[in-house]
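Data availability excerpt. The first of two example chains:
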Amino acid sequence: MIYPDDREVSMSNGPLTWRRRMRERDPGEEHRASTPLELLFDLCFVVAVAQAAAELHHALAENHLGAGLAGYVAVFFAIWWAWMNFTWFASAYDTDDAPYRVLTLVQMAGVLVLAAGVPRAFEHYDFSIVVVGYVLMRIGLVAQWLRAAAAHPEGRPATLRYAVGILIVQAGWIARLWAPGVWGWITFVVLAIAEMAVPAWAEFRGRATMWHPGHIAERYGLFTIIVLGEVILATLTAVQSAFTEHGVSAPLIVVAVAALILVFAVWWIYFTGAQAHLRTLRIALTWGYGHFLVFGSIAALGAGLEVAVDALEHKAHVSEQAAALAVAVPVVVVLLVLAALHRISGTGAVARTAIVLAGAVLALLLAFSPPLFGLPVAIAGIAVVVAATLAANLTVLSSSDRP
């Protein structure tokens, strides 16, 4: 989208537009898709998500359930929220000029610093490196919002509220580094709520930013692919572990096949049907915030499958039942949350809530079955239940489409 007052400067890789003004993107723009820069930005989150899932895997394998889950939720929130901040701004104001690209580079540097701080946050609850990463990201993001405020008078009140809100909450995160003991976690919860309140405060007071519904839905789908990568990685681990110098391990082959079925079924459930219909800002925010549980649970599923592999190789300090629960619980959360999001946005292969509830109950029951049938059978059973839940919902959807 080139404006009359734009000028172009030739670069080595082709023409690059330098715009005098940052313009608001058209929310009704046809064929709006993710840009190569957005995809490059997402690669930084591939690394960050992998770090969080790996730390969760190690915590669960060492039977540090409480500490592991607390650390994972905190770290994954930081990762997810950083991605959310960039994505929603880009949907409204991605002009893809040189200043925009440079400020995105600054944010990418912050994401990598955040990823580097994940192990320390898990092991010692030390979020200092994570906060440094956030400061870098916020430098780029706030500069983008201020640039939009200066160049787009119609949207200035909302863009300024974003800039001010982000700066205030970021100051809170820096001050939190000195919070003692339990106050560290109390302030974390308070600040996380404050972070999620900033968009509502900025958008609902006066004129909202013009984000693109189709673009937002696509971006969330792409992040779903990123977290599904953790399940693919766990599948690879199971396959590699199955082929040993002593022969082929049938139990690990079963787990590998089950993991592949799980990742494919979850993908199918998520991407079936029309694109999310985000009719209002309230629906969009509810749908967007609900994805925290979807993204976090899918990545946790990958960690749970890694724990199952460790348990079969006698490397984990947990029972087979605990390993099965590490797989079943994320699956149940994904099914239930996607059912709720389907009711909000009308997307996904979730035609009947009763079918999803039945699948969730069966998956949990199978998690308690290893003492009777063994861990491989339990995980295979969970995969079959998810696939059957998908098939049942697809059948209902197909029947409803018939004249």
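And the second chain:
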Amino acid sequence: MTYKNVELTKKDGIAWITINRPQALNALNSQTLSELTSIVTDLEKDTKSKVAVLKGAGDKAFIAGADIKEMHNMNMLQAREFAQHGHALINTIRSSRIPYIAMIHGFALGGGCELMMACDITIGSKSAKLGQPEINLGISPGFGGTQNLPRLVGRAKAKELLLTGDIISAEEAYRIGLLCQLVDDEQLEETTEKLAKKIAGKSSVQTNFIKALVNKGADIDMSTASDMEIAYFSSGFSTDDQKEGMAAFLEKRKPEFKGQ
């Protein structure tokens, strides 16, 4: 399928997803949301893709936010549909079997920050700027910002950012846990690719299990989460990857996982 606002390339088990609207700082409009949703949904069927990287085209922004030109004249029903579309995309990424890495440069604001938070690992360049400035537009976040930000940085810090609309530096985002890694601008893509290749070389059965365990376990009680971990752990012993991984360890060689 041909996309207008998003590019998809695949290499070495990595799916590179690029939001390609640099003239609009990669802002998320309805068409871009539809294209992203189509891509992440199709990737679930592609067993050769082990990791996905989300990035923005150009040198100014990851995603500067949702498209204000499109939102400006929305009525309440249209705004609801737009927010539902954004949430559906984010939920698809969060529930995906594939680990997602967000590669952040320039602006990651509003919907861009929310899409970043849906990813499993976030790597940012030192020049990046992040925030949820929706309040400055007379609205509140609509793609999960009020729910995901407190889960990542704590309620008090999240409220401060949401209520002020302040845009913070990459260093501050890293300090509060919004970014997992912080690197020099010129090292961003190399660092991201290196990490993606490292994860792609693991058992895709277990990367799926681990992602699901962390995401599901965070929202349930410890006893239920522990039982879930035991179930996933034990079921791993029915896989070829478990046999290969342990045999490789005992034989002092690199394992060759097949995702089975």
